[in-house]
């Protein structure tokens, strides 16, 4: 099974909340108004790909880090 790393560039995040709307089980808004991934390493992309695609400033990246098949 593949494993993925989720990264968010907080310097360019505008705090729109699109990622939280698309994937509330892995994204939350912090007190500073920026989004944060709750799990930076995941086994399945699930809705995180939708969160990435919905970001208007493209601050989310998802990288495949390992394949355990």
Briefly say what this structure is.
The protein is an alpha+beta fold and 69 residues long. It has two helices and five strands, in the order E-H-E-E-E-H-E.
Tags for this model:
Alpha-Beta Plaits; 3-stranded antiparallel β-sheet; two-stranded antiparallel sheet; 33% strand
How does the SSE layout of this entry go?
Blueprint: E1 2-8, H1 18-22, E2 27-29, E3 35-37, E4 41-42, H2 48-54, E5 60-67
Antiparallel strand pairs: 1-4, 1-5, 2-3
What can you see in these coordinates?
The protein has about 70 residues and is α+β, with helices and mostly antiparallel strands. It has a single domain (about 1-65), classed as Alpha-Beta Plaits (2-Layer Sandwich). It is built from two helices and five strands. It has a three-stranded antiparallel sheet with strand order 4-1-5, covered by helices on one side. A two-stranded antiparallel ribbon has the order 2-3. It has helices at about 20, 50-55, and strands at about 1-10, 25-30, 35, 40, 60-65.
Q: Bin the strand percentage.
A: 25-35%
Question: Number of DSSP strands?
Answer: 5
| Largest sheet descriptor | 3 strands, antiparallel
- H and E string: EHEEEHE
CATH fold group? Alpha-Beta Plaits
Count, helices? 2
Strand order of the largest sheet: 4-1-5
